Amino acid sequence: MAFLNWRAKKRLSFLFLFLAFFVFLVVFVVYFSKSEPTCFDKEKNQNEEDIDCGGPCISCVVNPKDIIVLWTRVFKTSEGVYEVASLIKNPNLFYGIPVLKYTFKVYDSANILVSIKEGQTFINPQDEFLIFFTGVETGKREVAKAFVEVEPLSDWKYVAEKMPSLVVSDKNFSNSPFPVMRVRLFNESLFSVENIFATIVLYDDEENVTAISSTVVDFIQGRANRDIVFTWQTPFEKEPVSSKIFTRINLID
User: Fold this and answer.
1) What is the DSSP string of 158-183?
2) In degrees, to the nearest 5, what angle opens at C-alpha 202 toward C-alphas 200 and 203?
3) Could you read off the pLDDT of 181-219 as tens digits, one per residue?
């Protein structure tokens, strides 16, 4: 009886070895016979956002909405020197652009082009942000208006990350000896936020934009405050009545 048990165990061992070899052989054949993933294999692979789109393939965005230029303004800072700025909005909920290239064109009162400035930035989903240049020199020409142009937008990317909540908890303005706006930002998230682009817009009593300024905050720890400062070169003839602060980090890199 013990001999029969030993023979049965031996046969069972051979059966297990055979099955293991068969499974290994099937996995080997399937793995090495499978073709490399492509953007046309009708499968969601290679970090694609959907089947054959996103990631290394073409964007999954279908008819994305154009970005909106809410306004463009010119600010005189000294004789022959100006700042130019535009407030931009991205209405797309989940898509941004790694690189947005733009061009400012500045004109005098005779509608003559006096300056061209080119730059680039990123766009987050549902982003509302300022692009601007300081120190735009025009010689003796008085600037009357400016326009911003953006290159055709095609490189849309899906962005799953959300902008952390940064709340303005306090603001304090002083106009002498030079204008300073001190702002306290509170990071509501549990984690540190790094490389924060902060921009402030000042308004008069009729809600006209009167000045802008920007700074970069290296980091704010989670559930912590950070004091930041915005400055201008010369005192304002009329102190601002209100202000709005825009904060953003690059969610696409």
Assistant:
1) E--PPPP-EEEEEEEEE-SSS-EEEE
2) 145
3) 999 999 999 999 999 999 999 999 999 999 999 999 999
At residue 186, the 3 state secondary structure works out as strand
Residue 243 tokens, joined: 């202000």
Fold (CATH) for 68-158: Immunoglobulin-like (2.60.40)
> What pLDDT does residue 29 have?
62
Residue bearing tokens 């509170």: 186
Q: How far apart are CA 214 and CA 225, in angstroms?
A: 18
Pick the CATH number of 166-248 from 2.60.40.10, 3.30.420.40, 3.30.565.10, 3.40.630.30: 2.60.40.10
Distances (CA, A) of 228 to 72, 199, 218, 224: 25, 11, 11, 13
72, 209 contact by CB (below 8 A):
no
